[in-house]
Amino acid sequence: MGWIKTRDEMPKIGQPVWAYVDGHESPELMVRETIKEDSEEYEVWCVSYDLPFVMNNKWMANSVYDDHYIVTEWHPLPELIPIPDWESLRDSGLDKPFKYYKK
Predict the structure, then answer these.
(1) Residues 87, 88, 89: CA angle, nearest 5 degrees
(2) How do residues 3-29 score in pLDDT, each as one tens digit?
(3) Residue-wise pLDDT tens digits, 33-84
(4) Which residues lie closer than 8 Å to 99 by C-beta, 6 or more apart?
(5) How many CB atoms sit inside 10 A of residue 94's CB?
(6) Fewer C-beta within 10 Å: the chain N or C terminus?
(7) pTM score of the predicted model
(8) Could you tell me if 35 and 65 are in contact, meaning their C-beta atoms sit under 8 angstroms apart?
């Protein structure tokens, strides 16, 4: 999948994506969010100054609305590999990666 133009499609609200902002040289980690001002709701682009993280097998990013960003293109983060629960990981023996290491 290549870069998606915002005029063709927008990411889901709350979905972290790589995005090209008009006037910036490199992509940035951004999230579309809904903000409420007075009694009006607006959809805005928020920038994430931190690294993305995974929670409940889903990409997350702490983001802030600190400017009016004009995003021209975006790209979804890669799909996550399902992570087994600790119990099945322990039962498989994969929780001990150096189990067969010999000095």
Answers:
(1) 90
(2) 999 999 999 999 999 999 999 999 999
(3) 999 888 999 999 999 988 888 888 888 898 998 888 999 999 999 988 776 6
(4) 93
(5) 11
(6) C
(7) 0.73
(8) yes
Token output for 25: 């040289």
Q: What residue has token string 């927008």?
A: 10
Residues whose CB is less than 8 angstroms from the CB of residue 100 and which lie 6 or more positions away in sequence, other chains included: none
* 55-87 exposure pattern, b = at least 16 Cβ within 10 A, e = fewer: eeeebebebeeeeebebebbeeeeeeeeeeeee
Q: How many helices (H) and strands (E) does the chain have?
A: 1, 7
> 84-93: per-residue pLDDT in tens?
666 666 666 6
Where helices occur in the chain by DSSP H, the ranges are 86-92
Contacts of residue 11, defined as CB under 8 A and 6 or more positions apart, other chains included, come to: 17, 32, 74, 76
